[in-house]
Amino acid sequence: MRLILITLPQLVVLAKILCILMVVMCGAAPTMVRSVSLHAVCSGRNVTVIGRTVTAEQRNDSNAAYQELTTRSEDFSRQLYIYAEKSQRYICFNKRWKLVALPKEQKGPMCQFFEMYRDQYLSYRSVVDKTRYIGFNSRGKPIKRPHGRKECFNFMKYNPHVDISHHNSLVNAQMGGMEPREPFPVSRKPSPVTRATKNFLLQADSARDHVQTPPHRQRHLRNRWKQRQNGKNSAPRRRSENCFVQASK
Fold it and tell me: Which region ranges are annotated with the description Disordered (predicted)?
């Protein structure tokens, strides 16, 4: 009797653990799904699913909802589905290896991808063909050929609901309501070309100040100055002589 009383709580705990494991293995436990956006590195735009069309476009108020995606898996393998919530479609390859968006009834192996890391970026490889990746060119159009620029097959995943201004306001409030400071002015050193030009101009100014007038030029200037002085002194005499002549007449 004592043995039963001692082991009964342990059996209850083990039974609960087994029930939880069975529920998880059967797939009845709800999975946590988070909306994300895929940023195509080559085009600098986000993957957008509108109807059957899959492109990469700039984010705005009209297409923001069509850029919210989720990655789902039906088992514990690495095979994922990329689901567009607003359009309620899955990103898939068709028979010609063109990216299309298909409803749930038409999804299949061509809609499954392996999520792989390339340096700091993500890439999505088809489960059916190892040489096929999801990619967009610089204009945001899907790439059909398996060969191309590597950065056109790279993506960055981020949360589309993050508001940077709201985050900054929260951080500002936690710091005691201090207003954000203006960035400090950065002093940049002048380039070698700028320094050489400045030194050349300074040398030219100093040389111009130290240039002396040649001797013949100095004599010419003195003679002209004397002529002007003589002209000023002789002008009143001429006027008096003219006045005397007019009076005698």
Answer: 204-249
